[in-house]
Amino acid sequence: MALKLYNTLSREKEDFKPLTEGYVGIYYCGPTVYSDPHLGHARGPIVFDVLKRWLEAAGLKVRMVSNVTDVGHLTDDMDEGEDKMLKRAALEKLEPMEVAEKYFWAYFDAMHVLNVRRPDIVPRASGHIIEQIGMTQDLLDNGLAYEVNGSVYFDVSKWESYGELSGRNLDETQEGTRVEVRSEKEDPRDFALWKKAEPSHIMRWPSPWGEGFPGWHLECSVMSTKYLGDSFDIHGGGLDLIFPHHECEIAQAKAAGKGFATYWMHWNFITLSGEKMAKSKGHFKTLEELFAQYDPMVIRFNLLGSHYRSVSDFSPEGLYASEQGLKRIRDAYAEVERLLGDTEAAVDESVFESYRQRFSDAMNDDLNTPQAVAAIFDAVREINGKVDSADVSYLASAKAFLEAHTDDILGVLRDSASAGRTDEGTDMLDGLVHLVNEQRQEARKRRDFGTADQIRDRLSEIGIVIEDTPEGSRWKVN
Question: Among 71, 361, 395, 455, which one is most buried in terms of CB atoms within 10 A?
């Protein structure tokens, strides 16, 4: 395929060539499950969901792996502070694994509502302690780590390529370190592979160096290579993970003899009305809060409206624009479906060839979803101008185009009320609405307009909009 991806490692767009022909291995950093999923959790999974859909549409077999951090992530990324899981467990008076389980499902429930398909493998850090101990031992054996007082640290000074991803050299790293030299660290830049558990630390495992827990950076190096092989195609994460997290990942994985990832993709931040989200300041939105206000598909569509490497500003004005844009697409699709009915017609691929090519060119240009969406809008404008006089072949072609691009690839065509619903469930809802609307039509025939309006209003309250047209009544989910 002609896909080009921006590789953070090389700082340029590169032709994407899988290591194994026909197969793509992808790993992206998932959540630390210690609190409610928020808007910042949504962008990466949506981007990588669309990436996987696009690769599969090209005929490639994709294995997507995304981890869950349920141990070892301290409040300070430089190996200091409290464990985030333990801090939350104390706050909620729960066992740490209760916290992990609670927010694990909250996160994936929210992703399902956003129509993000589950990764093929979702490994948990706590389930791979043995492998993390193994890599730590390999690094000790290779002379690139040292043990002191039951903790093991990676020796950054012995890894000359440290900084290759972030562009920082060792001197800059030392100047920019956020903590002073600890008595047990030989260098402030060194990072923990294994931490000794203090007496009050609940989550602990036996190791050759005493009871402790793995460092945060280690889990991703271990789990990505376990499920994708020592060398794999794409590693992704948020821009804030480039340093120190991903820098440490590369160093320890390669020092342990792994080829590791070829392409590195990083998505940019989300701002709220122009201001960067900050949990510490309470300036953030949980997904549960947003779902109560907006159609989740509008949220997904909004996030795809900006390039993944650009800042995405989330505001009521932007949400309204996304809502209206998605409505135009859905309305065009609904009208095509209505006119086509049960008629079967051959799809003419040439009819929408120019829009299909524009969409493909945009997606192959480093997943440029804004330009891909622009191609769809132009196609919708054409459809709206021709739909009333179009033949069945055109209608079938329009239906196929919209389904293939806005549903199969972008994943936004279906409204959230029908997301995840089976065909059987759709048929049942259609039958129930049809039955209720028949009662409304009977009332209108009797000139009992009060009852007819009451039925329509009650349907509207639960999100079913009835539209009366010269061809008869039709309904849609609002």
Answer: 71
Claim to verify: residue 146 and residue 260 sit in the same structural domain: yes
Closest CA to 156 of 18, 251, 21, 43: 251
pLDDT tens per residue, range 314-352: 999 999 999 999 999 999 999 999 999 988 899 999 999
Question: Do 288 and 36 touch, CB atoms closer than 8 A?
Answer: yes
SS3 state at 18: coil
260: left (phi over 0), alpha (psi -120 to 50) or beta: left
Residue 119 located in a structural domain: yes
Helix (H) or strand (E) holding 384, with range, is helix 369-386
SS3 276: strand
Same domain, yes or no, for 403 and 434? no
Could you list the residue range(s) of the whole structural domain that residue 346 is in?
324-407
Angle between helices 296-304 and 43-57 (to 10 degrees): 80
The kind and range of the H/E element at 222 are helix 216-228
Q: Which of 375, 366, 415, 414 is nearest to 50 (CA)?
A: 366
For residues 279 and 38, is the Cβ–Cβ distance under 8 A? yes
Select from 281, 314, 341 the last residue of a domain: 281
Query: Per-residue pLDDT averaged across 128-154, rounded?
Result: 98
Domain count, the chain: 3
Based on the fold, state whether residues 210 and 259 are members of the same structural domain: yes
Q: Cα(295)–Cα(299) distance, rounded to whole angstroms?
A: 7
CA R_g for the chain: 26
Domain boundary among 407, 436, 459: 407
Please report whether residue 1 resides in a domain: no
Contact by Cβ (8 Å): 242, 266: yes
- What average pLDDT does this structure show over 168-187? 63
- Averaged confidence pLDDT in the chain: 90
pLDDT attached to residue 172: 61
Contacts for 132 with CB less than 8 Å, ≥ 6 apart = 125, 193, 194, 214, 218, 219, 222
Q: Is the dihedral of CA 34, 40, 46, 48 positive or negative?
A: negative
If asked whether residues 246 and 368 sit together in one domain, one would say: no
Q: pTM score, two decimals?
A: 0.85
- Answer yes or no: is 289 within a domain: no
Residue 241 identity: L
Domain identity same for 369 and 445? no
Q: Are 395 and 437 within one domain?
A: no
In a domain, 301, yes or no: no
Give pLDDT tens digits for 272-328. Answer: 988 888 777 778 899 999 999 999 999 999 999 999 999 999 999 999 999 999 999
Name residue, tokens 């459809």: 383
Which CATH number fits the domain that encloses residue 340? 1.20.120.640
